[in-house]
Amino acid sequence: MTKKYLISFYEILFTHMKNNLFRKKSIEQLLNEEKGRSNGLRKILSVRDLTFMGIAAVVGAGIFSTIGSAAYNGGPGISFLFIITAVTCGFSALCYAEFASRIPVSGSAYTYSYVAFGEIIAWIIGWALILEYAIGNIVVAISWSGYFNNLLVHVFNIHLPSWMLIDPLTAKNAFIESTSALASGAELTAKQIKNYEFAIQAYNTAPMIGDVKIFFNLPAFIIVALITWLAYIGIKESKKSANFMVIFKVAVIIFVIVAGAFFVDVNNWTPFLPNGFEGVLKGVSSVFYAYIGFDAISTMSEECKNPQRDMPRGMIYSLLICTGLYILIALTLTGIEHYSNFLNVNDPLAFVFEDRAPWIEKIVSISAVVATASVLLVFQIGQPRIWMSMSRDGLLPKQFQKIHPKYQTPSFATIVTGVIVGIGALFIESDLVTDLTSIGTLFAFILVSGGVLFLPPKIKEPGKFKLPYINGKFIVPILLAGFIYLFRTRIELAITEFSFSNHQEILFLVFLILAIVITVLTIIRNYSLIPIMGVLTCSYLMIEIPIVSWQWFLIWMALGLLIYFLYGYRNSKLNLENRI
């Protein structure tokens, strides 16, 4: 009898938890909440502003730094990778556009997941977006510091103390590596010697408190503080600043492409795929990192004049423009310098002109400072608005939804974002991998693409975007068959030489199983091609990210779930409404 009651108790508990964990908000409910809000955000953004914001977020640290490592692995063929990644992002961008046209409120993928999947998935994606915005901005701030210091030294001949330009862990590791390398007597390049001397000088000249040497990245902290202030005082001021920075950096990139054309040696494009297509795919994380951010403009729906028309256009326009620039830059760089020379080059645009035209290198340095600052601005605008949306739903404390009476910005959330990113940029290791940021972004793209399949049918309305329906019943199976044929050798090795220690191949097999399941469902349910391709392509890019990033991602997700069950689950607005 007791056993029977226990089973009934667990069944009731499971049903209760399931219904509450996956409780959803309807589109009508979100729109009514938006209309009834008296202290909303200022609606001033046009399609041009959104396009500029998208370019501001995309053209940044990726094109000025990570493209170098991708070029080393893939050679001139990375231009293909930019096209592949753009198509992948394009599928997701169209799905974002569909959601943005239906749900013109702040929150981006978090809000969309609340409608499509329910609360627990919405929380998970909101937590994952912190990886994209907050941690991503720490990386960008540290990168900005490097460009800024380079600008001070080479243009203004100003030398800041070395210990003000580096975090404690990087300083210690660099000192150990430098002294060891110099003592070994190995043959070193001039650049390596310069970097090692910088590390030793930073360590030896650092002030001390007791027995502890003091290191911090002051320029990174200062730029975060300035950008946070700009995001705090208003979207109008942020918009003007972003527009100016975009015009400047796009003009410089076009200039670099045109000027670089005179130094191109077409022999450097042979072989075009020196390491095969596998070499090209090694640059997935680096190239994808160059694309993250176009989704940030979806957080600004509430500040858009006509979000249902302009948000989709802004996303798609910015993606197309950035893809064109990236392909031309990739071909220019690998045409000027042989791909093998990009090993450990963190400033490829400046590197190719260093000996050929030093004056262009200085222009690139200035543009890099502007470009990375614009990325910081868009991400510092995006993160608070996601927290604001989560707070409105009761998943975070009420302070996060506080709107400044004068500036009409989420003031408290903006300050918290600035503090987190600022302290992180001040002390966190500068070698923080971009993979962790990419994995959070791809996860968001997958859920947004899949979420479109769960939306109710919509009739096309004049002036509003509607995702075109293309039946994937026949196309998806053909594409899957083509994928299996192209990767038949890898599939065979993964199966015949299966090992639990080979994590990357396990991820590949998991993707293959997922792809087969999704293909079968597409055949049975006539799913639309675009969202299915968004899910599959982003899933594939995820499995190419190193396993160590997956481990940290899962730890981050576990921490997020702990916070949700301790606070969000009980304080959820939907939970409180159900109690009444």
Automatic annotation (TrEMBL):
Membrane topology, record value: Multi-pass membrane protein
Keyword entries, A-Z: Membrane, Transmembrane, Transmembrane helix, Transport
Domain Cationic amino acid transporter C-terminal stretches: 529-572
One MF annotation (Gene Ontology) recorded for this entry: amino acid transmembrane transporter activity
Lineage of origin: Bacteria, Pseudomonadati, Bacteroidota, Flavobacteriia, Flavobacteriales
Protein's name in the database: Amino acid/polyamine/organocation transporter, APC superfamily
A GO term from the CC aspect: membrane
Recorded coiled-coil stretches: none
Compartments, record wording: Membrane
Main location: membrane
Pfam families (UniProt xref): AA_permease_2 (PF13520), AA_permease_C (PF13906)
Chain ranges passing through the membrane: 50-72, 78-99, 120-144, 214-235, 242-264, 276-294, 315-336, 363-382, 412-430, 436-455, 467-486, 506-524, 529-547, 553-569
